[in-house]
Amino acid sequence: MESLLPIDRIAGVRVLVVGDTMLDRYWTGTVDRISPEAPVPVVKVEQVQERAGGAGNVAANIASLGARSQLLSFVGDDDAGRRVNSILELAGVDRHLHIDPSSRTTEKLRIVSRNQQLLRADFEDRPDSDLLARSVTDFRELLSGADVVVISDYGKGGLANVVEMIGAAKERGVPVVVDPKGGDFTRYFGATMVTPNRQEFESITGVPASAPQFAQAAAELGERAGLEGLLVTLGPDGMVLFLANGEVIRQEARAREVYDVSGAGDTVVAVIAVAIGLKLDWTLSLELATRGASAVVGRFGTSVVSLSDLQDYEVGRI
Hints:
By secondary structure, this protein is of the alpha/beta class. It has a single domain (7-22, 53-106, 126-310), classed as Ribokinase (UDP-N-acetylmuramoyl-L-alanine:D-glutamate ligase, 3-Layer(aba) Sandwich), CATH 3.40.1190.20. Helix content is 32%, strand content 29%. The chain has a 9-stranded mixed beta sheet, sandwiched between helices. A 4-stranded mixed beta sheet has the order 3-2-6-7. Strand 4, helix 3 and strand 5 (94-100) form a beta-alpha-beta unit. Helix 2 (55-64) packs across helix 8, helix 4 (129-143) packs parallel to helix 5 (162-172) and helix 8 (264-277) packs antiparallel against helix 9. The radius of gyration is 19 Å and the shape is globular. It starts with 6 loop residues before the first helix and ends in a 21-residue tail after the last helix.
């Protein structure tokens, strides 16, 4: 049957991703004894995996779908930064990485056994202020070749000038999708869409997503932040989009065994950005984003979505 996704037009969509890029490392092995030095398990590491995380994962998702993906971000002058660059190059991402010799690349190391995370160690630093200022100039230059902008905020310091960036995108009429961090959404004022998860929404509003006041709190948050839409992702309960015109679109989750939720939010914003670039309606955009998120949580570790993940073979449509 004919696909509802215009696959032949995806290659013409240009998405600029800006934000916090990191390296995700996974040390996977078996546990068969407790350390004699302390009451902790001893992991015999059998496999080491490295993947791009944060904004890098968003950019890799976009490239995997066949759109043109550009990434503006920061890395340190270190092995982790070089590994991120190499991974993204293989993924087909057009990279604009500022190398900060005074900082280090953000890195998350996860030690895993039997698909269970035993420990996570984070290594991070904030980018140099001069590089942050220079990134705004680069952003303005890259903006001229973008159909959609994604702001991937992981709170690592790479988006100190996000207000100016969103303002520049608005001046050019370029839609902006934000994966947020922190309790102040007014810094994303004027964005097309912000996509908090359940925990982020409840933290900033104080209203549980299961409460009767959920819709009112979402509408008020969207209005305060001057958004066209607020998309609240609810994990197994799907997602809900609150539009500035008062329309509410609910999308149920697709049942699937969950192995790892890391990176699901990256996939959602990547699919939404491509859908906006294709000028799809919101109902179809949310359906596609749900399919993508359901696919990646069914795989171990930070994973990217593919066009085949968005296919519905049962009903022969996307």
